[in-house]
């Protein structure tokens, strides 16, 4: 069974006109396996995730974070245990991150992700880098987000305003940026966006893998060199 990164790569190579036999030799995968995945028959069936153990306490947690976005998780864990929560502190932290229940603090995040990196040197049409820019001082008093797509070769970029940084907002903004730039390069690079790369790993999320296959591109982290991972390898 191929990983999401392997699946993305063979679709990207096929989109460039590579034949099954060429893809098989390049990736070291069996021809039948490559052909099956290109037909869409090999993709894993992803089950819906099990309900979080925090669901019964979601309302309470959100109310506590509304009162204090900096609430220490150890304090929250003690309060939840008193209310009947029977899981460990690490489980609480993991689920808070997975469900993105803790709101973003504009002060703490002021400098995070604000710099757009365009110094990657590659041929024209080879790469685009995606970055989120957070705007804090808005006339309406609420934060806004801008998805920036910068071409690594020329430094040309386009941006799209978004209300949130969910994958739905990301996908729509990416499409609008690519249309404005006249098409997509062969490789997308991101700064480990949580909606693209599973937090704490170098693995693509299922949604990001599907988007990459749709556009026929490869995906890699902006913090790693080209060819450093299967998802960002280049044809020989």
Offer a concise description of the structure.
By secondary structure, the chain is of the alpha/beta class. The chain has helices at residues 4-15, 20-27, 31-38, 58-67, 73-82, 89-99, 167-181, 206-215, and strands spanning 127-135, 144-151, 157-162, 187-190, 218-221.
Using brief descriptors, characterize the structure shown:
Nucleotidyltransferase, domain 5, disordered C terminus, 3 domains, single chain
User: Level of helix content?
Assistant: 25-40%
Q: Give the rounded overall mean pLDDT.
A: 78
Model regions low in confidence, pLDDT < 50 over at least 5 residues: 110-121, 222-236
| Integer tally of domains | 3
User: Biggest sheet, strands in spatial order?
Assistant: 3-2-1-4-5
Q: Tell me the distance between the termini.
A: 24 Å
CATH topology of the largest domain: Nucleotidyltransferase, domain 5
CATH architecture of the largest domain: 2-Layer Sandwich
Question: CATH homologous superfamily of the largest domain?
Answer: Ribonuclease H-like superfamily/Ribonuclease H
- Cα shape: flat
SSE arrangement, N to C: HHHHHHEEEHEHE
By secondary-structure content and strand pairing, the structural class works out as alpha/beta
* Extended strand count: 5
Count of separate DSSP helical elements: 8
Tell me the name of the CATH class of the largest domain.
Alpha Beta
- Binned strand content: 5-15%
The biggest sheet, with number of strands, parallel, antiparallel or mixed sense and barrel status, is:
5 strands, mixed
Radius of gyration: 20 Å
